[in-house]
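Sequence, please.
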């Protein structure tokens, strides 16, 4: 019965922590939020199964991780210049249909992965891409020729 009570207490605490950290879906988690959730699992497991005899230690450990995650989020909001240091910055990986090999190599991004992401967006060839950006969160954004109004058309092959 003690394990049920411990699990109930920690469940309520985790619910409060996840509400305080934010409403991200799994694919939108920042690095720090992902670390928080992965680490929470181990810390809570010890408190529930009595490997650590104190629920307080599990609450303190998870609370510390949650507080640091919220603090980093606040720092990014309050001091925008800190954002590139904390979360990284976007990087151009395709320009005018040409894959920028140096940028790809620096980020250890395989051309095959770039092509898969492009196909998922309905883009058949890299020559159809005006720009592709590797976002700070790891997603790829594609800007094909002839996209939104005012965007340049794909140059003729003779240019």
């Amino acid at each position: 019965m003690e394990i049920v009570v411990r699990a109930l207490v920690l469940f309520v605490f985790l619910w409060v922590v996840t509400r305080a950290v934010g409403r991200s879906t799994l694919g939108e988690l920042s690095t720090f939020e992902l670390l928080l959730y992965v680490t929470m699992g181990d810390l809570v497991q010890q408190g529930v199964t009595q490997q650590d005899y104190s629920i307080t230690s599990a609450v303190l450990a998870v609370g510390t991780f949650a507080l640091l995650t919220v603090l980093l989020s606040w720092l990014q909001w309050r001091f925008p210049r800190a954002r590139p240091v904390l979360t990284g910055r976007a990087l151009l990986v395709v320009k005018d249909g040409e894959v920028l090999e140096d940028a790809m190599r620096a980020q250890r991004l395989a051309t095959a992965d770039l092509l898969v992401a492009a196909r998922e967006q309905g883009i058949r060839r890299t020559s159809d891409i005006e720009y592709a950006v590797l976002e700070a969160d790891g997603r790829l954004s594609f800007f094909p020729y002839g996209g939104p109004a005012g965007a340049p058309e794909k140059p003729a092959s003779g240019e």
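Residues 106 and 126 are 19 Å apart (CA to CA).
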